[in-house]
Structure prediction request, 910 residues.
Amino acid sequence: MSSKPSIPKGTRDFSPIEMARRNYIFDTIKGVYKKYGFQQIETPAVENLKTLIGTGGDESDKLIFKVLNSGDYLSKVSQEELISQNSTLITPKIAEKALRYDLTVPFARFVVQNQNDITFPFRRFQIQPVWRADRPQKGRYREFYQCDADIIGSNSLLNEVDLLKIIDDVFSSLFQGKLNYTVSINNRKILAGIAEAIGASDKLIDITVAIDKLDKIGVDKVLEELSTRGISEEAVLKLKPLFELNGTFEEKISFLNEFLSTSEIGKKGIEELETVFSYTNSLGLKTANLVLDITLARGLGYYTGTIIEVKVDNFPSITGGGRYDDLTGKFGLKDVSGVGISFGADRIYDVLLDNDLYPEFKGDTTQVLFINFGKKEQDYCLPLLFKLRDAGINSEIYPTAAKMKKQMTFANNKGIKYVVLVGSNEMESGKLTVKNMENGEQENLTINELITLVQ
Amino acid sequence: MSSKPSIPKGTRDFSPIEMARRNYIFDTIKGVYKKYGFQQIETPAVENLKTLIGTGGDESDKLIFKVLNSGDYLSKVSQEELISQNSTLITPKIAEKALRYDLTVPFARFVVQNQNDITFPFRRFQIQPVWRADRPQKGRYREFYQCDADIIGSNSLLNEVDLLKIIDDVFSSLFQGKLNYTVSINNRKILAGIAEAIGASDKLIDITVAIDKLDKIGVDKVLEELSTRGISEEAVLKLKPLFELNGTFEEKISFLNEFLSTSEIGKKGIEELETVFSYTNSLGLKTANLVLDITLARGLGYYTGTIIEVKVDNFPSITGGGRYDDLTGKFGLKDVSGVGISFGADRIYDVLLDNDLYPEFKGDTTQVLFINFGKKEQDYCLPLLFKLRDAGINSEIYPTAAKMKKQMTFANNKGIKYVVLVGSNEMESGKLTVKNMENGEQENLTINELITLVQ
Prediction:
C-alpha cells in the first residue's frame, strides 16, 4: 500500500492544538461535575450487541456499528442463510459485539450489573467517545465524545436544580459571560397533559415527534404533520396557541394552569416545573438564561419528566438531558428513577472557536528550547536542560547541530516562547543568552534566573 | 432481555476508585511527557482495515477486530463467495474498517497524512485504548490503554537518552523509591552483529524470535529452538556464552568488542549503546537500574536500533520501546527514523495496587455532605452548599429527608470526610455542626470556618 493513507469518513485526527482545546473543555466540565459530587466511571467501547439493540428503536439499531466475531465466523451460519443474503438476519450470528451508541445505555447496564456495590443515589459522570453509523455532515461525526452526568436512584427535584446549576457553571466558565445562551426546560408530563387536554392521549408519541421538529420545519409544517399522523383537526386547532405562547415563566404557567386544568398528569408537570424554577431562581444563575419552552420535546423516547436543552447562536443543541423513570428496566432493575445531562463537546468546541474564546495554552507546548551548536555546547547544555525539567518547565534541546535557521523555525512552529543560545562566551560566563520569541528581546541570565523567568 | 447483563470477555468497567487510580497513572505519565516537550494527539478508534493489516504479520492481522460495514453489506458479496464460507476472503468485502491494534501504526499513518503540517522532529504522545482479539487471561485484556511517546524525524541518540530519563522520572514518581525495577537496553544492531559473527546473518529473524523467548522457556529450550530453526550446531555453541554473560556494562561491552570484532553492524551497535549509556550515566538516574541485556530482543519486527524494556518484581514487561527506521514506509514516506516507548498502564496499575503505592484520592469524591432533615432545613442549607461549591469544594446535600442512618451510610460508603448537620439550633445560631467522619469529632463552625477547614 503506497497510496496516500486516510481515515474513515466521519472520523477525525486531533492535532496538538486541537487536543489542548478539547482537554480544556473536558477539564472544565470534569471540574464542575466533581464539585457537585459526581464520580467518574468508564465502560468498554465494545458492548454485547444484545445490550445495545432495542433501546432507542429500529432507527437507532441501524446506527450501531457491529464488530465482526473473530476466527472463522462464517462457519456458524448455514449455507441457506448465506444464500438468502439477508444482512439483518445474519448480522447477530456473525457480530455478537458492537460499539456503544451512547453513554446512557452502557451506564444503565453498569448500574444493574454493579447494583450491589453502588451506594444510591449514585452521581456518576462519564466522558468517552461513542460511535454512530450516521451520514457524516458538518458538525456530525461517526466517532465523537459525550460528557454525561446522571444521578440515579433518586426522584428528588433538587437533582434537576443541580444539573441546571452545573450547566450555568460550565458555560459561565467557558463563555466568560461573552455569549448569550438559553437553557430551555420543559416536562414530559406537560406534553402528556397537552395530549390529554386535546383528547389525543393515545397520540402522545406522534405529538412529541411532531413538536420536536418545530425548530427545523416551523409551526405550519408541524400542524400539517400532526394531521397526517391522525390527530383530529379540532385537536390540532387546540394545539396552535401553545406554539405561539410567549411571556414570562409566570405568564406561561398561568396559561398552562388553565389549559391543563382537567389533566392530573399535566398539573403534576406544572408543579414539578414550578419547584425546579423556584429553587433555581432563589439560588440564582450566573449567566444562563432559563426559559420554559413547552414545545421542547427532544426525540429521546425514555424521558418521563424534566427535559432540558441548551442553545447558543445558530448552533443546534449543545447540551441536553432529562429525567427517565425506567432506564434500567430493560436489564431487570425496575423503578429506578434518574436524571442526567450530556454536554456535546464537539459543538461546544466549534462555538468556542467561532467566538475566539479559548485561552492561550502555554503549558501545552515546550516553553524553552536550547539551540544545538555542536557537541561541546550540547554537552554543556544537557544538565541545564534537566534542571529546567526538574523544575517542572517543559523544555528540550534541538537533537542535532542543524542550521540555526532550521532550529529557529522549529521553535517558531512549535510556539516555543524562550530560546536559549549557548556558545563559548556563555559557557565561560555561565550566563545564558535567552531570546524571547514573542517580542524578540534578548537577555543574559543564569540558569536559576531563567527558571524564575519562565515560572 | 431480562437476564443479568454482562460485558464482552476481556473488557472491563472502571468504578470511581479504579478511575481515580488510572487517572493518577495517566496524569503522572502525561506530566512527564509534557516536561520533555511531547505534544498530545488522538486518532480515531476506527481505522480503515487496509491501514492496519500487513504491519505486524499474519498473527497480528488475526488479532484485529473488524467493524461490519453498515447497511445491506451482504449485497456486495457474490452468492458463490458466500457459499464458499471463506471468512478470510469475505472479511475485507463486508468489513472495511477495524479497531486499532496499537497506537504506533495509527501514528505512522497520522504522520504521513499530516506531514506538511508537522514540524520535525515531532515529539508526540498519545494515551488511548487499543483492541486485540487475544485470548483473555489474567493481566491480558481485549480492550486496554497504551501510553505512547515517540520522536519521529531525528536519528539523534539524545532522543534515546530522553526516553530513558522519562522512564526514570515516571517510575521514580509512581514507585516513590520503594520498588526496585530494571530498565534493560539492547540494540538490534548487536543482534544483527551476533548473527553475523556466528555466520548466520540470514537467520537474524529466527535468532531474534528464539532469543525473545529466553525469559519464558530458559536457555536450553532456546538453544533447542535455534537448532530446529536451522541454525548449525557450531553456531548455536558460539551463541551459548552470550546467554550467560554477566558483569558490569563495561565488562559486557569488552566481551562484545571481541565477539563482534568482525561485524561492522555489531560495532555500530556497540557505539550506539556506549553513547546512550554515557549520556545517561553522566546526567544520572533517580531510581532506575539501567542494565545492558544483549538477549533483549522484543518481538516487534520494526525495531532497527535501540531496544528498551522495563521490568519490576515478577510482572511481565511494564514498559517497552525502541528505534525504528522505516515505520512510515508502508504509507509512502521513506527514510524517517523514530524512537518511542509505551507504558503499559494496566500492568502498572496492578504493580501499584499490589504494593499499596496509591496516594489517597481526596479530591475525587465528595468532601462535604449536608444531611437533609426536611424541607425547612434543606432550604436553609442550599445556599450554603453552593457557597462551598463556588469555593471549589466538592459537596452535595442528600436529596431527600431519608432516615439519618441511611444518610450516614451514604456518607461512609462514598468516603465523604465531613458531614454537616443543621437543625433548628444551627439555623438560629448560624453555626453548623460539622462531623469529621474519619475521627468522629464534632465542631460548631460558621460556613466560612468550614470552607477554611476543608481547604
